[in-house]
Amino acid sequence: MATMTPIQELRHSAAHVLAAAVLRLFPDAKLDIGPATDGGFYYDFDLDHKFTAEDLAKIEEEMKKIAKENQKFECFEVSREEAAKLIAETPALAEFKPGRLADIPEGEKITFYRNGEFLDLCAGPHVRYTSQIKAVKLLSVAGAYHRGNEKNKQLQRIYGVVFPSKAELDEYLHKLEEAKKRDHRRIGREQKLFAVDDTVGQGLVLWTPNGSVIRQELQTFIGDELFRQGYSQVFTPHIGNLNLFRTSGHFPYYRESQFTPIIEQEQIDALAAEGKTCADLAGMLAEGALDGFLLKPMNCPFHVKLYASQPHSYRDLPVRYAEFGTVYRWEQSGELNGLTRVRGFTQDDGHIFCTEDQIHQEVCSCLELVKIILTTLGMDDYSVRVGLRDPESSKYIGKDENWEKAEAACRAAAATLGVPVTEEKGEAAFYGPKIDFVVKDALGRGWQLGTVQVDFNLPERFGLTYAGTDNEPHRPVMIHRAPFGSLERFVGILIEHFAGDFPTWLAPEQVRVLPLNDGLVGHAREVVAALRRCRIRATADEHSDKLGAKIRRAELDKVPHMLVIGAKEAEAGLVNVRSRADKSLEGSCTLQEFVEKLLPLIRERRLSPDAPAAKKA
């Protein structure tokens, strides 16, 4: 029996009740799987009928009936042969459950759970009675490929949530409504921040001028901090030879999450002439018998080669490289989501090459950098997770003694932060342990942002050295760090955190000038030009609308500051300030006075006028 927390047991049980309700209403439905998830539960169904919103309401009512029936969850163990027979005799299980049965390792216990007339192959555990499922809500239905493979049949996945009490469910639904209002995809369209076009490619982001401003401001922000910390900016190609990634271990270990390798046409033609199939080609690539190129899934092998391109002494260390490097990962189309799950993204990547004695200080500096970024953006509620290797897994590379050193370094550095720290086995990268920041946004949702990793293995695999005090070659340690993680995902989270209402320094448009009539448009343009000379992003609303309409338009566009100009203001050299960001800025003043108040907000990257300036590393 699997181990679950009480809330996971409740969610898992609700998934079974969902399936039972569906079978009562749609007896022809075929069942696949129905697990608990981090936020709720789902169940996958195969059914010719397409579920509608009305169907979900009926299914939910049927679930409540089953709960009132107070059915007992009963577990019974069977042999593999008995399980196969039971599955074959149960129409709802006959199509997909044989494959799920085959997934259970030989010698492992096989169990079924029954509640009322419902039966399912399941390892459990569950709550005791269906009456414990008191507060449940079905949220949506979506397509999901069987086993997540696009080549398989597409099933219908019904998502739901369940809580111990109605009050908790109501609180969740309130947050869900607020989350819909903050959905970065909706705000992205409304504020013209980014676009995704299927003719360009799913999961490939087009940054609009407005979105590009936010991205560039973030790059400048972290670039300033990196300069203070002694990083050197580097640039590397978007593709690399397969042998580079074979040496690093990224290929073929993670080929399922990588784009197909690029092979020269002459090689393909020659192999085709020999009668080689696609399967032969894949095998040759995996075995290293065929050369080619790969869209880079990681920047680190390139930085390793930069380090190796010249000799180093202990006096040179630490060597710190930073790059806004675009990488490419193959994600299933059903998993793509706006900016937060994409196929091409830019990492604020950095790699440090140092001695073992320098590890603690360098990791602590990386963690401090992440803290500065999160504090500046008002994301102060976070915890830290140390990802360790699972000694039972074969996916990790490197020597045990190096892993022990690296894990000890991560634990020691994380302990200096003064925030809650958890450890999770199996969450390390294949080459080393890592420290992840788990940040709560304005809605209390947790996001993994900012990663630092200690790596003894890639320097070993690539044979990196530096000359020590004894003039003998020594192996450096490599530290990977990405405070934002990916710019795309980070911006998506920021959009939702701020609900599109960015602080002045991040706002794509910081000031909008609103002339009262067409005769003042020329003066408004002069004001805009003066503001732009001060590096303030400003535009003028030159529509012939009334002032109220212009103000509403600026508010909908989330412009932080508006300057209203009438004939009297133009004649007196004044502007009338309306501020969404801070009411203390409002009133009549000269343009110079307004600029003097506004520039500190921008230059010091303040969240608001009374907030402290951003801390520097």
Structure report:
This protein is of the alpha+beta class and 617 residues long. It has four domains: 6-176, Threonyl-tRNA Synthetase, Chain A, domain 2; 205-230 and 296-497, 2-Layer Sandwich (BirA Bifunctional Protein, domain 2); 239-294, no CATH class; 511-603, 3-Layer(aba) Sandwich (Rossmann fold), CATH 3.40.50. 37% of the residues lie in helices and 23% in strands. The chain has an eight-stranded mixed sheet, with helices on both faces. It is globular. It starts with 5 loop residues before the first helix and ends in a 14-residue tail after the last helix. The relative contact order is 0.08. It comes from Candidatus Spyradosoma merdigallinarum. It catalyses: tRNA(Thr) + L-threonine + ATP = L-threonyl-tRNA(Thr) + AMP + diphosphate + H(+). Belongs to the class-II aminoacyl-tRNA synthetase family. It is found in: Cytoplasm. One of its GO terms (biological process) is threonyl-tRNA aminoacylation.
Structure in a nutshell:
This protein has 19 helices and 26 strands.
